[in-house]
What does this fold into?
Amino acid sequence: MNLSFRDKFSNFSFVLPALAIFSVFYLYPFFYTFVLSFQKYDLISNPQFVGFDNFREILFSGDPWWKNDWWSSMYNGAFITFWALTFQNILAFALALCVDKVIRLNKFYRVVFFILPVLSEIIIGLLMKQLLSGEPIGSDVLNRWLYSMGLGGLTGEWLGEETVRLVTALVHCWKGFGWAFIILLAGLQNIPEQLYEAARIDGANAWQTFYKVTVPLLLPVMALVFVLTILGTMQAFAMILALTGGAGGLTEVPVMRIYDHLRIRMAGLACAEGVVLGIILIFVSFTMLFISKKIREKYGVLPS
Amino acid sequence: MTAHKIFGAVAVCIGILCGGCAGTETADNGITLWHWMTDRDEAFQELADRYTEETGIPVKIKLFFPPGLYSQKVIAAARAGNLPEIFGILGEKKTLSSFIQAGHVENLTPRMNAQDAAWESRFYPETLAVVRFEEDNAYGVSRGIYGVPVDTTVLQFIYNTELMEEAGLDPDAPPKNYAQFIDAGQKARETLGIDGFICGWAEGWLLNALATEWAINIMGEEKFQATIAGEIAYTNPQWIEVFTLFEDLRESGILANNITTITNKEAEDAFARGNALFSFNGSWAVNVYRQLSPGMEYRFFALPQVSDDHPVKIWGGAGSAFMVNANSPLKAKASDFLEWLTEKEQQKYLVAETNNLPAVKMQRESLPVILRPLVDDLGALTHPNVWPYNEDSRVLEAMNRGLQQIVMGIKEPNEVAEKVQSIKDRVTEQ
It folds into this structure.
């Protein structure tokens, strides 16, 4: 069908508002970030082209370069991500398995587990700071609770230099496991019941059913959860800022550095950090998807 | 749907988009002022109303909070050419110089110097220095006065007099030197079980301010400035001595637990609840403590000296200041308002309402008792905004983090000094 120019324009005009908003608020900032990453820019004066200086500063400054502040923040981010990938996702998977089975109050648990992810990160950070800190700023709730349970030997200075990194990771996991829980639960509920029935008829025990039916069919969902966990955790920021403020670099994560550099109006450097982080995350995400595809192929599971 | 309706819908969408980006609203034939100071907003509103009553010129006061958001708003407005007639600039003098060089800030020198410098002579020189650029300054800005200070800020040590007494210490004799300071802090911990010292050291600038005061006391202002100019290294023994003071503070056990995760607001709250004997905070704390704990008895005292070789300098002078938009057709009216705002009567009202130190010279007796000793110290003020050079942000970032790491016990003073110097070398090379 041949459309007149007027008809084409008329059709196009339906998507024009969305396209305009997308271009102004997504595409333009996205490309402008790339442009600024090659400039020295204080947000007020005119930007000055500096080539790859910002990238050199981020990636290779310091002696040795792999111990510079950027790579230290990447290490902190990776540390929290490791705990999120393991502890958080295993916890989410275990809870999803429990709730997927017909247990009492399963709808209640779904709501309860999903409350934490929808709460503000700042609120969680400030709340946990109160609970974990002793005098003079906190109420030392966790230590008091441990004492009252007869576990006085486990009390400690949770935000002290020796534990602050691990505690930050665990608080992040505690706040974030609800997302993984909901996605994994949806994945579990998509597995046809007939497959479990067939397995039972074939004489498979619970472990064999889990290992041979549940896990392979859940692999695409697990891959998605892993990628989302990496992306979400490496970009964690507000909760950590409220909980520790960076703790002398011990819990400083990459986005915190970007925020700090923007705050002191080193916008070029901040944009370059954003670009570097974006590239690393894209690389990690594609690697994860590639690995997941290979595993699915090995197990003979169709791509979802 | 007809083409007219489609075009109408598109026009509405574009209209909404453009509306969101519209220019700043200006009071009808009057002045608009943007600020970030929640504690002073009511007082500013009241003064604006009085001014309108007196002159018939409407003044609209608009508060944007928190300060980070305010800064973004001002920068965005400057880029878009939508700045109001009067605005404040948060940050270092470098930031002010960027605004000036971009043509956003009016040079008020002719106004200030008129009638035998009647307006200029009202101010404490230390306060005005923050917005003044001398000839051949490092920022490349033309000589002049580019703002109107509305108050003065001083960072000082503070002690709770009641706790001093309870700890068996003389409340009329605060520590004069570093050793006495440590002793008093330890005594408070032993006898009262409270922290000797609390401060918002999650915010690196507070650590930096204290380190600066001790550095100037140990090496003198000239040598301190020479470090910023790159002539003396941060690995110099005197700088190591400065960093070691923070290690000693940690080892003395007087610091609040996890002090490097405590924000200034949390520190103010804890001090107001009597959880620590000493604190290090700005003169704005008077207003904060008045709200948090009206009955608390406390006093300011000068830096506990480490050396007698050089006089103590106090971080301060840089109170809030307002700038006039150089591109506003109402800039003359805006200057008139600021001149009126810094008259003694209005300043007295601001002091009474907000408990901040005034920007203009006032009789000591007309100030609240708690603020009077601070006025005596104005001659000893120092601040990066009045130094010939400012240290690079990356060096400051490294130093602040290094100080936090020393206080946390994860880095040695010489390690921090080497790291700071390596960044200084790289920055200098660039």
The domain at 28-153+317-378 of chain B is CATH 3.40.190.10 (D-Maltodextrin-Binding Protein; domain 2). The longest helix of chain B spans residues 204-228. DSSP finds 17 helices and 15 strands in chain B.
